[in-house]
User: Which sequence fits this backbone?
């Protein structure tokens, strides 16, 4: 028996590795399939846009809110708070995607978008996103907004030297441009603009009730689509 | 007991201790290889499924895992790693059971993986300029394996 024991152990580990790999693969595929339900309006990421997009929420969510915003636009800050409330209320069924759409008449909008992207490189996009909206009044008209952004970066424990360098990174500029191209391809002309599962939401519905109704009908739509 | 018998007894005892040490060290190698196999299997499954990997510590691991260096001739590098770790596991298990040829295979495999790991660390540090925690874990395992092979006493 001892003669065969090592081969039995080796075979058992081989089978376990294959079975585990297959199980992980299957579960990841299922998650992707669930996610693709919400991407029916953009199969295989055919439309432009920064990849990967800044996303938060459950990977199992069946509803995606895609928000096009400018950090310097005051209503965008308001919508951002509203979206957070909706996230709390809808927990596992909602995913939020943020897209940059810095307006030309906002001088500090592009640097702010780059600050958020640079923070993203250190894993803190959403923290910077929240800080930028929270301190919007302070930096919007500032002559040297970049130094304020660096202060915010320090307050969330980012490596500020790397952060300042990353803000000039061409790759990050390209991500912002890609989001703007996506906005154009989806007919966005103002901020904030919101899409739920690829469907444009009229600005009259930018309220807790209006957006919740849109989310509920998107959930309903998904159920009907999967029933067919 | 004659002097010669005492000497033979001491040699046999030393040999038994050496054997036991080798068995323990090869067993540790096998356990480490299973950990490496689990890491590489997870990365392979993630790569093949197309879903991005959730990073644990570093923040830019997706840059590493989606870089052009993540595949070799269309084959995911993680799969190559998984095969490597499985080979190390099999060789270490057989070596622990006293198979001499397996010991040689184990040494060669770990040597190759050690060099490969150095190359991958260089790519992460100087070319991609981002690290991936799963790759660093794999590097740590390979270094530990190399360390064990170096300290394993040769069979007399």
Assistant:
């Amino acid at each position: 028996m001892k003669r065969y024991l090592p081969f039995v152990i080796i075979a058992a580990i081989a089978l376990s590795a294959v079975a585990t790999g297959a199980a992980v693969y299957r579960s990841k595929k299922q998650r992707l399939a669930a996610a693709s339900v919400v991407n029916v309006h953009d199969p295989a990421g055919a439309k432009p846009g920064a990849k990967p997009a800044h996303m938060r929420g459950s990977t199992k969510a069946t509803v995606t809110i895609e928000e096009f915003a400018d950090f310097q636009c005051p209503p965008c800050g308001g919508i951002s708070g509203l979206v957070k409330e909706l996230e709390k209320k809808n927990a596992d069924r909602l995913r939020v995607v943020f897209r940059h759409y810095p307006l030309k008449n906002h001088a500090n909008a592009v640097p702010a978008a780059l600050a958020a992207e640079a923070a993203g490189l250190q894993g803190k996009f959403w923290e910077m996103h929240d800080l930028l909206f929270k301190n919007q009044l302070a930096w919007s008209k500032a002559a040297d907004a970049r130094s304020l952004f660096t202060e915010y970066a320090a307050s969330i424990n980012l490596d500020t030297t790397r952060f300042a360098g990353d803000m000039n990174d061409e790759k990050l500029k390209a991500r912002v441009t890609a989001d703007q191209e996506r906005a154009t391809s989806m007919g966005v002309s103002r901020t904030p603009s919101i899409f739920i599962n690829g469907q444009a939401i009229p600005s009259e519905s930018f309220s807790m009730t209006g957006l919740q109704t849109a989310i509920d009908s998107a959930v309903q739509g998904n159920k009907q689509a999967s029933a067919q | 007991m004659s002097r010669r018998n005492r000497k033979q007894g001491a040699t046999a005892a030393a040999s038994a201790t050496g054997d036991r040490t080798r068995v323990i060290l090869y067993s540790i190698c096998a356990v480490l290889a299973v950990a490496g196999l689990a890491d590489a299997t997870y990365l392979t499954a993630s790569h093949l499924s197309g879903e991005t990997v959730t990073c644990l510590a570093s923040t830019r691991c997706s840059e590493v895992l989606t870089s052009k260096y993540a595949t070799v001739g269309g084959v995911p590098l993680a799969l190559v790693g998984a095969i490597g770790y499985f080979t190390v596991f099999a060789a270490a298990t057989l070596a622990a059971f006293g198979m001499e040829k397996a010991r040689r295979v184990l040494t060669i495999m770990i040597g190759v993986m050690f060099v490969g790991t150095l190359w991958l660390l260089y790519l992460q540090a100087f070319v991609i300029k981002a690290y991936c925690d799963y790759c660093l874990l794999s590097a740590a395992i390979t270094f530990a394996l190399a360390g064990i092979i170096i300290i394993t006493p040769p069979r007399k």
About this structure: Chain B touches chain A at residues 34, 37-38, 41-42, 44-46, 48-52, 59-60, 62, 82, 86, 89-90, 93-94, 96-97, 99 (CB under 8 Å). The CA atoms of residues 91 and 106 of chain B lie 5 Å apart. Chain B has one domain: 15-151. The domain at 15-151 of chain B is CATH 1.20.1440.130 (de novo design (two linked rop proteins)).
